[in-house]
Amino acid sequence: MKLTILGCHSASPHKNKNPSAQLLEIKGHRFLIDCGEGTQVQLRKAKVSFAHIKHIFISHLHGDHFYGLPGLVSSFRLLGREAPLHIYGPKGIKEALTLLLKLANSWTNFPLHFHELSSDSSVCIFEDNEVSAHTIPLNHRVYTNGFLFAEKKGLRRVNIEKAKQENVDTSQLRLLQLGQDITLESGIVVKNKAVTFDPETPKKYAYCSDTAYLPAIVPLLKGVDWLYHEATFLEQHASLALQTKHSTARQAATIAHDANVGRLIIGHYSSRYKDICLFEEEASQVFKNVTLASDGLVIS
Amino acid sequence: MKLTILGCHSASPHKNKNPSAQLLEIKGHRFLIDCGEGTQVQLRKAKVSFAHIKHIFISHLHGDHFYGLPGLVSSFRLLGREAPLHIYGPKGIKEALTLLLKLANSWTNFPLHFHELSSDSSVCIFEDNEVSAHTIPLNHRVYTNGFLFAEKKGLRRVNIEKAKQENVDTSQLRLLQLGQDITLESGIVVKNKAVTFDPETPKKYAYCSDTAYLPAIVPLLKGVDWLYHEATFLEQHASLALQTKHSTARQAATIAHDANVGRLIIGHYSSRYKDICLFEEEASQVFKNVTLASDGLVIS
């Protein structure tokens, strides 16, 4: 699992302060999460091939999370893309993108699948054999979802040498991967645990932005390895956070603490703060393992 | 008159290659012409106060000329703007921006006036005492206008010393500015030309992007001081220019030559060319005074 922060600042773009966008690499997928203005340039800087992006998840339709998407989709078209693109986002996203493409007389030459979201409960929006994605309903000024990406439990890993010693035939390795014991022709039973290792622990990543402090999401975040939670403000501006439905660094850390996540990543800093380190200081009083997001940061 | 090139590259944004946007300062106005993705960052880099922009002219609704506008309008709102904003652009621009603002639940707290264009002839779209703006209908894959900005002839400039010598009263200076002769109480007539200088020659700027080679615009461009004309391709790709309704450097120079403009500025280079100097080389074979646009370039 690898996370590239493409942009982690709130509101309007500044030089070297990009609005929200992240690339999550998980089990061979490259999921783009949010797409603020300038995301395609950030993708280029991070040397991400546009062709590898097949799923884009948009939390909400505020500009700093969404206004880079029309340009990115146009670029896909100009680059001759043929592979389908799946876009997950709030109801209305299809109408907006379709209108912009129509006005530009720029219909995509690849299948564009919209998955419009409107549920107020957590729902599964993507699933294959190796990974799933669920929404995390958030509390912001417009309809907003976070996203929970979870690897599925993998196969048991066979200790090849040990299996050979026990005379297991290679044709039976698949059964070992699936957790079964093996009965040899001699009648001897080889216990699965004797010749396999546990599968790798499945990883989970949760993205929560933008949202007011929302303890209701804690149960959904239990067991998450990495949690990105917005922290637009410091506690000194808690009333502004309340008013604009954003969180403070302390509130983000409280969510991380209560959900007992592995690591908290914070971002979406308001541009009013010159010293971003204050966010780490405040959050780490409540939760120890805090990482400050920065544009271009790679976590793996 | 001062022109700042904010972006002059075609198609999708690259690091250090911004899509179309320009700021024209003329007679106290700051006109934004086109607004590709990333324009607000380019404005910040050029240290342009957002509050000074009151008129935005959009040539056409392709992303590289337009997808920076929703974010810029959102930023105006976040910055607490109260002054009216006028947006001139093709029919559909109002529907698109209004939908995006509605989806973001971000109504502007300042008056937003749309001036939708649909005429195929040149029309006056802005006029005050000092400057006018007319459309220049172009030939592209979607409905597109260039823009002609013209200063109006100013007042005559009074030679104060000479006027005093001739006993003209200060209350009569305004009449001199307006070009009138003055009859003194003594009955002596002071000829206007004896105590005034000609007004400064009014300046004209024309922006033509995007367009196929279109000789029909030459009459509109006669007497223009600076002409920005797109040159997406070199002659070696003239068939591509024809197919995509863009121009070559030679074609841009031919328009400049035939209209006898003062200076030709070219830009909107396709990213296929590594050496932009080839554009200057090709154009200057037809027209001598060629300037290559570059992001951040200021012409005054």
Q: Main traits of this protein?
A:
homodimer; 300 residues; alpha/beta; Metallo-beta-lactamase, Chain A; seven-stranded mixed beta sheet; 18 strands
Q: Topology, pairings included?
A:
The structure is a homodimer of 300-residue chains.
Chain A: E1 2-7, E2 21-26, E3 29-35, H1 39-45, E4 55-57, H2 63-66, H3 69-78, E5 85-90, H4 93-103, E6 112-117, E7 124-127, E8 131-137, E9 145-151, E10 157-158, H5 160-165, H6 173-177, E11 182-183, E12 189-190, H7 192-195, E13 196-197, E14 204-208, H8 218-221, E15 226-230, H9 238-244, H10 249-259, E16 263-267, H11 277-284, E17 290-292, E18 298-299
Helix pairs in contact in A: 10-11
Short description:
Two copies of one chain form a homodimer. With 300 residues, chain A is of the alpha/beta class.
Explain this structure:
The structure is a homodimer of 300-residue chains. Chain A is of the alpha/beta class and 300 residues long. Chain A folds into 2 domains: 253 residues, Metallo-beta-lactamase, Chain A (4-Layer Sandwich), CATH 3.60.15; 41 residues, no CATH class. Helix content of chain A is 26%, strand content 27%. Chain A has a 7-stranded mixed β-sheet with strand order 6-5-4-3-2-1-18. Chain A has a 7-stranded mixed β-sheet with strand order 7-8-9-14-15-16-17, with helices on one face. In chain A, strand 7 and strand 8 form a beta hairpin.
